[in-house]
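Notes from the pairing session

We agreed to fold both candidates in a single pass and log them together. This is the raw record for the first candidate, unedited. Please don't reformat it; downstream parsing expects exactly this layout.

Candidate A
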Amino acid sequence: MSDEIHLPFEMHTPLEKIWVSLQPHLLSRGYRLRPRYDPEWVPSWTKIPGVYATECEDSLRNIGALLDAIRISDGTKVVMKQIDTSTNELPLAMKLSTPELRSDPRNNAVPVLDVILIPGNDELALMVMPFLIDFAVLPFRRVGEVVEMVEQFLNCLEFLHEHYITHMDFCWFNLMVDASRMVPRGCHFCRAFDRDGHTIGDFEWIDRWAVRPVKYYLIDFELSRELDPTGNHRFAGKWGQDRTVPEMSETVSADTFKVDVYQLGNVIKKLTDRYTGLKILKSLAKDMAHPDPLKRLTAEQAVKIFQCRKLKWTARTMEQRVWKRTTPFIDRFMVKYRNFNTII
């Protein structure tokens, strides 16, 4: 990976070369990749004397199995993911995108917009999804914004478990947000705080509170399982990003439903640690991330407790400001009194 990062900007990484080879097929299917992935690409900085590669959008390389694209029919930005067809990820994601399951408002699994088969390659397929950003990359500003997010993911977890689906990686970097109304001018796939990939200082965004409701999504079902309602719900092995799960083991099985609850509870706990003003969520996070799985809440219990407490929270409570503990006073002042939205 480090060798790929230090390649000259005009050279594609091995992973990028896969996308370059797929570009003509994707174009025929109605999707346009960025100029960098055109087989006939000539680096733009080589055409203009005195321009550095870092000043040009097409120097931004992608590292990983995800890449953004434009759906030509309507100009919509989407994201494509290379999926190993030997896993359950694609069938499970497609099941969660069926009209029947999508009709449940609790279903916040990322929708599958399209599936693209690769000619001559039965091992990979491309799953097309909406263009989303990490749920917390833009700071929360009010209690109600966090409450809205927590409620959606709690409901989603309950929904999955009702259908005997365990995510097994219900963690920070798999929680996303549709920021299309928060960032109406859009942002670049490789640079969240950059509108077009090369214009510095041209990023603008709007508080979630001003454009609510905001929709959140759960992604990455690579480790997920659909369980037999009458069978075993305990597994050992891979558990995703959160390495603090107490019962995590490569050899000793654990209740996968309780692991999901712990993972989401730990996300909420991290938010209460990183932000001021989120005391109302602390006890829920603690009970969801209890070190003893037998004393840990189920998804259904967590939802019921949350909804019961939500009834007692006033509109004034929801409107109260929250701040990252690292946000300087001057930034708080500018946000609160000058309507200037920093990204801190």
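Candidate B (folded immediately after A)
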Amino acid sequence: MSHWYFRRYVTSEEERAGRASPQLLREVAAMVRPYWAKMVALLAAAIVGIASNLAVPYITKQMIDVGVLRGDVAALTALSLTYLAALGASWAASYVRGYYTSWVANRVIYDLRVRMFKHLHRLDLDYFARNPPGKVMSRIINDTESLGEAVSVGVVDLVASVLTLGGALLIMVKLSLELSLVAFSIVPIMAVATLVIARRTRRAHLRTREKVAEVTSELEKSVAGAREMLTYIMRRRASIREFARVNLETLRASLEATKMTASISPVMNLIRAGGICAVLWYGGHLLVEGRVTVGTLVAFFGYLEMFFRPVMTLTMFYNTIQAALAALERIVGFLKEEPRVKERPDAVELRDVAGEVVFEDVWFGYDPSRPVIRGVSLRIRPGERVAIVGPTGAGKTTLVSLLLRFYDPQRGRVLIDGVDVRDVKIESLRRCVGYVPQEAVLFSGTVMDNIKFGRDVPDEEVVELCKLIGLHELIMQLPQGYQTPVREGGKNLSVGQRQLIAVARALLTNPKILVFDEAASSVDPVTEEKIRRTISTLLRGRTCIIIAHRLSMAAGADRIVVMDGGRVVEEGTHEELLKKGGLYAHLYEIQYGRAAVSP
């Protein structure tokens, strides 16, 4: 990914940082709404805890003024028991609040990850072209975890802090208006310090999160390309240098965020100490003058601590959730991503497909100003076997991507049996068009799981199909046959085995149209021959489109379409194109030598 993209991304996040918080807090509220019953229990526990905590300093005042100074032992005993009861109620309420807050937070993270994963499968290839796997994984794993921190300190903690602050303020004013005014004088100082530090902390956390995503992306590329990294020393060194650079930028961003976060507590404690010192000095004068009692002064300091604690909690809460709010902004942005390829409300099912495919004056470019498909018009008859060949970058794979609706053309139409694919339900379209990619992607599970690919098909049907395409013998040579575990990416299988599994997977739905996207370009000659035999025997009556890098795969086709520069430049059979002496003959000559060109 280009560095420009990350600079652009961070800048756009920073521009929203100052104004997005209220909306994002509403998003958090919407996330916890399904658990309103537990939230009510949390609020009830919070109120009980707040009431108990607010009672403690006043009980202390009465113990000093009535029990100690007046020598009333009975009152002192009763007040002591009341004090213990208040502490017990506070402890019980704190336990309930802490447990259920954590429960709700973890449930929200679970729900959010499920929601994001489902949304991920709605997005089209355009999104994945713009966002590397590392960044996508960071959204679903790291950002949701960060959001959990905000939810765990949570809405209830925020409400509890506000209620505690309000209760402490009322009682402080009732105890001594003069001391209260002294205490309140430091609030503006705290507010200014909070705003300044919070803004810088927010931006620092934004930068850190983006750099972490960039590191994840670089790491993912290195792991995915481990074989190439081990083979090409210069590429490995370049990759190490790039990772070191990105990692250093991440370190700097993280240290900046840490510096800002670390400054919060010392600054707040310094302001708090100044406030306490001022109250102690003025309160001492009032005590000497007899305008307050010892119990009142002691109680006031208890409430002063309760006043400062919510102020600091709110300050720390605000700063703690900066990273979470930044993560939530990205999560919301991800959930608002819409696929450019959308299913129309009145889309139809493809039924009784004959298999005719028509490209009608099709134009397409990943960047619309730079088309890679230029006015292609092509008709493939039902049951026809057509090979599409051409040099690298000719637009072969892009053309079949339009048939599968991975993308939509900017101009023209792609039709199946006369129906525009944009008018067809996407699931129905991809059920009718089987696709075998150049590199088979296998997932964790067994060989049988990877062939079925989530479809409810009897094992016997899978075995029968594998026998037909020559895969059964290869599978039975594996340690556990069809139940052999497949490592991530199919690393414990050969390239040929993986490709034949992909062929079986595509054929299992019995598609009327089948696309082979250079499916034999990276396999050994034996596997290539098996794929060619499969095409010759199993695909009778099906429309077959073969994107061929090796022209030996194209030679047996009913028709060969030659593309160059996004256009169709030649059409004909293998023999016709060789006689013509055009681009196809030139490509054939390059692959097989001049002697093979002569008819």
